[in-house]
Design brief:
The protein is an alpha+beta fold. The chain has one helix and seven strands. The protein has a domain at 27-94: Beta Barrel (OB fold (Dihydrolipoamide Acetyltransferase, E2P)), CATH 2.40.50.140.
Length: 100
């Protein structure tokens, strides 16, 4: 039994360290700087330009409504949720009421 307890503790700690890395995607608040083809550039609230890719799986919403990709234009404030590797957009949210 004394040998099992340290082994169990090591396994628990190892699994916690893997969990700490997480699989959550990252979110960014900012303003659309440009959208050309599948490339989206957003200027974050910190003033940093973030370049990401839009894919066929990217979802677009305005408030609670699904909208088309055509609703995205430079100057629109957005919240984007990125994949874990920060390469592509999973969800692009626009504030409700924006129609530009």
């Amino acid at each position: 039994m004394k040998r099992i307890a340290p082994l169990f503790l090591i396994l628990v700690l190892a699994s916690l360290s893997l969990y700490a890395h997480g699989t959550d995607s990252h979110s960014i608040l900012g303003t659309v700087k440009s959208i050309e083809g599948d490339i989206l550039v957003v200027t974050s609230t910190e003033g940093k330009d973030i370049t990401t890719e839009l894919t066929s799986d990217t979802r677009y919403t305005r408030g609670t409504e699904e909208v088309s990709r055509d609703a995205v234009a430079p100057g629109i404030r957005v919240s984007i949720k990125l994949t874990h590797d920060n390469k592509s957009v999973v969800l692009l949210r626009m504030a409700a009421g924006r129609t530009d």
